[in-house]
Amino acid sequence: MTYNFSMQCIDQIINSAAKTYYMSAGQLNCPIVFRGPNGAAAGVAAQHSQDFTVWYAHCPGLKLYDRTAVYINSLKHCSLLKLCLALKSFDV
Predict the structure, then answer these.
(1) Spatial contact of 6 and 65, defined as CB atoms under 8 Å apart
(2) Contact 40, 34 (CB under 8 A)
(3) Which residue segment(s) compose the domain that 40 sits in?
């Protein structure tokens, strides 16, 4: 499944989970990691080839890690997931 299906739950991602920390004055946290393919790929039609990276990157409360970034490429995926969870924040 591609990351385009995150649009089905975007309200919960942006307006609930990402803002929980701010709405609770820093008392509550919602550390969670979403991982999945994003963008154009073979076998996915036009409606499943959008790239929502920039959209999520501009949402307050979200931290976005793109595995195609140069400094991230040197990290193993397991290490990246551990890093995201250790930050105790909302990561995409």
Answers:
(1) no
(2) no
(3) 3-91
Of 73, 36, 63, the C-alpha closest to 51 is: 36
> Quick one: tokens of 24?
């609770």
Q: What is the CATH number of the domain that holds 62?
A: 3.40.50.970
- Structural domains counted in the chain: 1
Q: Grade residue 37 by pLDDT with cuts at 50, 70 and 90.
A: confident
User: Do you know the residue count of the chain?
Assistant: 92
* C-alpha distance from residue 10 to each of 16, 17, 34, 48, 55 (Å): 9, 10, 12, 16, 11
Residue 8 token pair: 């089905």
Global pTM value: 0.64
